[in-house]
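Hello again,

I reread your note about wanting to compare the complex against the isolated chains. To keep things tidy I'm splitting this into two emails, and this first one only covers the full assembly. Below are the input lines as submitted, including protein chains and any nucleic acid or small-molecule components. They are followed by the predicted structure of everything together. The single-chain runs will come separately.
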Amino acid sequence: MTPQQTPFALKLSAFVALSGEELSALDRLHGRRKKFAAGRDMVHQGQINQPAYILASGWVCSYKLLSGGGRQIVDFQIPGDFLGLRSVLFRTADHNIEPVTRVEASEVLPSDLLDTFSRTPRLATAVLWAASRDEAMVVEHLVGIGRRDAKERTAHFLLELGARLKLVQLSTPLGYACPLSQYMLADAMGLSAVHVNRVLRELRDDGLVTFQHGKVTIHDLDGLVTLADFDKSYLDHDGPLLK
Amino acid sequence: MTPQQTPFALKLSAFVALSGEELSALDRLHGRRKKFAAGRDMVHQGQINQPAYILASGWVCSYKLLSGGGRQIVDFQIPGDFLGLRSVLFRTADHNIEPVTRVEASEVLPSDLLDTFSRTPRLATAVLWAASRDEAMVVEHLVGIGRRDAKERTAHFLLELGARLKLVQLSTPLGYACPLSQYMLADAMGLSAVHVNRVLRELRDDGLVTFQHGKVTIHDLDGLVTLADFDKSYLDHDGPLLK
DNA sequence: ACGATCTGCTGAGGCAGATCAGCATGTGCC
DNA sequence: GGCACATGCTGATCTGCCTCAGCAGATCGT
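Full-complex prediction:
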C-alpha cells in the first residue's frame, strides 16, 4: 500500500488536501508495526508515556472502568483510526484500549508527533479535524445514551457503525461484518446484555435489522433511519475544506 | 486585561509554553466582541459558515435536539472556553449553542483560525490540546450517563463543574456561583427535572452539597468525591508539556 | 471424548426513574 | 395592582430496564 492509500491518509485527505511532502511526513510518522491479540488490553488507564497508534487492521474499543466494577465503552475504532491521541497529549492515559479482534497497528511516538506538527502545520490541522470528528461521534453517543430508549439507541448504533465502515469500504447498505458480542454492545450502550438481546430480537422481529453470527444485515434501511432519528451528516461531507 | 491574562491564553499556556509572538497571534484571533442575551440561541444545528467564539464572560450550553422533542445538553462552557470549533472545521454546526446567562464573546473567523494555525503551528497544537481536554470531559460525561445512577451522576457533575471553575478562579473548595436551573441539570444529566429535584434534596439531606438560589455549597467534599468516584486528574496537570 | 468456557437466549420479579398532576413562590410586564 | 410565566417542590402511579437464574449450542484445551 503506498503512503497515499493507507486508510489514515485517506481519512485525513477528506479534510485537508495533502501535498506529496505532507503525505511522506505522515508516512514517516508510522513507527514500529505491532500485533495485538484480542482481549488483551493494549493500554490501560493511568499508564504514562504510552505511544499512540494508527490502526491498520482489526477492531479495538476504548473504555473506562468505574470503581463499582461496571465498564462503559466509549467508542470502537476501526482501520484508519488514530488511537490514544489524548493519552499522548496528556502524557497519561485516561482510558483503556482493548483489541476486539486480532489487531495490527503502527506505533506513533509522542516526540515524532509533536515534531511533525511543528514542521508540517497542515498535518496538525488535519489531525485536529480527525479528533473533532471523533468527538462528534462521542457526542452523538452521549445523546443516544442520555435521551434515546434502548431500541432507538441500538438502531442508531448499528447505523453509525455502518456509516463509518462504509468510509473504509467495509460496509454496504445491505450490511457488514461485525465482530462484536452482545456483551460489548451492552457495555457500549449502557444496557445489560440481557436487555440488548431482547432489543435485538425486537429489531429482528420488526424486520429492520439482524445482528447474528458476526454479521449485521440491514433489511429496512429507511425504517431503521426513522426509528433511530439518524443523521449521517456529521460523518461525511464532500471534498476537503482546506485546499 | 493584557493578552497573556485572558482566560483563554491562560488555559492554552497550561499545555504549550507560548512565546510573546504566539500570544499576540492569539490576541489577533479575537475578532468583534459580541453580547448575547440569555436563552436566545447563538448558533443552531445545521447553520453553515458560522464563526467560532472565545467566551469572555457568562455561561453557555451546547445541546442537541431529538426528533421526539427531547434535548440533551452535551456540555456547559465557561469563560475561557472555545465555542464552535467543530462547527468551523465541518463548516456546518452539528449542535446548538445557548447562552445560559448574559454572555460576552469574541468572534473567531474560520479563515483567521486556519491562517493562524499554518503560521503559528504551536498554536494549532495548543488548540488541539484544548479540544482534547473538552473531549475528555464529554467522555467522562458519557460514562456518567451510561453507568452511574442519578445520585452519583449528580455528585460527579457538581464536582466537575467546581474543578473547571477553579481553573479560572470562579470556585473554591467551599462552593461556587451556578446560574443553572434544575431543568438544565436534568437535560444535561439525562434525567427528568422532577427526579433531579429529589436527588438534590437527598444530597442535601445527606449533608454533602446544597444546590440552591444560584449557588452550590459543598459541605462534605470527601464524601462527595467518594460517592461520585471522582478523579480530577483528567482536568489538570502541572505545567506545560510542550516547552 | 471430556469438561470448561463463552456466547446467545428466555422467564420471573424488583426497582430506579419517568410521567402526570398539583401547589407555592418569585419576577417581569402591562 | 394583576396577570403570565418560570422555577422549585411534592405525592401517586406506571414502566423500562436490571438482576438473578437457568438452558442450549459452539469452541477450546487436554
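For quick reference: The radius of gyration of chain A is 18 Å.

B.
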